[in-house]
Write a structure and sequence with these properties.
It is built from 11 helices and 8 strands. It is of the alpha/beta class. Helix 3 packs across helix 6. Bound molecules: S-adenosylmethionine. S-adenosylmethionine binds next to strand 3 and helix 7.
Amino acid sequence: MNTTDHHPSGGQRGGPSAPDAPAERARLYPRVTSFRSRHGTLTPAQERNWEQLWPTLGRDVPSTIPTDHGPTRATAEPLDLPTWFGRTAPTVMEVGSGTGTATAAMAAAEPDVDVLAVEVYRPGIGQLLGLIHRTGLTNVRIVRGDAVVVFTEMVATASLTGIRVFFPDPWPKSRHHKRRLLTAGILLQMADVLIDDGIVHIATDHADYAEWIAAEIAEQDILVAAAPDEVPFSLDRPTTKFEGRAEREGRVVTEFVLRRRPRDEVGAPTEPSNPDIKETP
Ligand SMILES: C[S@@+](CC[C@H](N)C(=O)[O-])C[C@H]1O[C@@H](n2cnc3c(N)ncnc32)[C@H](O)[C@@H]1O
């Protein structure tokens, strides 16, 4: 199967004729995003936490803005993780941290691991800032914006020990499948920022999305099933409201734990094939 025929949100690292600057690529090939814009206001306490903590704990992905020549945005600034966290430690990125319940609990349970939470939804980040403020966590940093930009432009190759994707939006309607985050192309982009033997941990309560994810995993051979003793951080997840609802409604949670095969075994990830991705109405 040619994944990009079916799942156009797959990767878009440039081929030989692709434009160099990521922002230029974003303008030419706007990606169908895996999230919808949601507005929401912060409580006064969250606003105070934001003012106080965001300059130190947060970074923004530059916004995409419409122009006469199509959507565009500034190139995202690379993150210097050891400087930002103030130490060198295994770093795990969480894609779509929601309200941060799992993020904060897992960071508290493993103080020797740094957690990079990425989320687009400001009120959710506001809640996570509140948790950090109340508990005094020092090992969480947050990026607001599209996680795909974070791991394609902001995080260095071979720098993360793990990536968590818990309950990604399932986009159940067929016409929305193009919005699903987890495609073979995106998995390869994740593999690029993982260290050798780094781990991707995915959980979903959506049976159809679980089948889709399994098929996408089978499309590439850089991320392979990990044995439990190969995982250098905890796989224990606190129950978030998504999992609680799934349990009450009798849905099964499927987890995937994947290991990035060492580079000297597999070479560089193959280029995802089709950069020619256009937003569809
Ligand atoms: C169904 S919620 C799950 C939240 C959380 N992981 C949990 O288990 O409670 C999915 C979250 O992913 C976020 N999201 C989806 N695509 C994203 C992306 N490309 N970058 C950052 N966040 C994203 C959404 O805003 C939403 O908050």
